[in-house]
Structure to design on (85 residues):
């Protein structure tokens, strides 16, 4: 496999551009394979993020408390941050 021509460190935009360059030269069958791979990777990343949230102790109770506070108008000005706590 040919090494990438992009110098390190790789920026997100440079990576996306190189991918676009390669995609434009692929056959339909290979594009379908790439679609399958990227779909799988996206789902894996999403599942990992979901699992990370599920592992937060008492997450549902914390969310319900936060929703109750918002409904009651108990909000904190984000610009003042912890000074309001």
């Amino acid at each position: 496999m040919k090494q990438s021509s992009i110098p390190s460190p790789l920026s997100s935009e440079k990576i996306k551009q190189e991918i676009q360059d390669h995609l434009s030269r692929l056959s339909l069958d290979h594009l379908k394979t790439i679609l399958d791979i990227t779909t799988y990777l996206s789902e894996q990343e999403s599942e990992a993020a979901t699992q990370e949230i599920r592992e937060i102790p008492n997450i549902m109770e914390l969310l319900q408390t936060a929703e109750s506070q918002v409904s009651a108008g108990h909000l904190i000005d984000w610009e003042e941050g912890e000074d309001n706590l």
Notes: The radius of gyration is 22 Å.
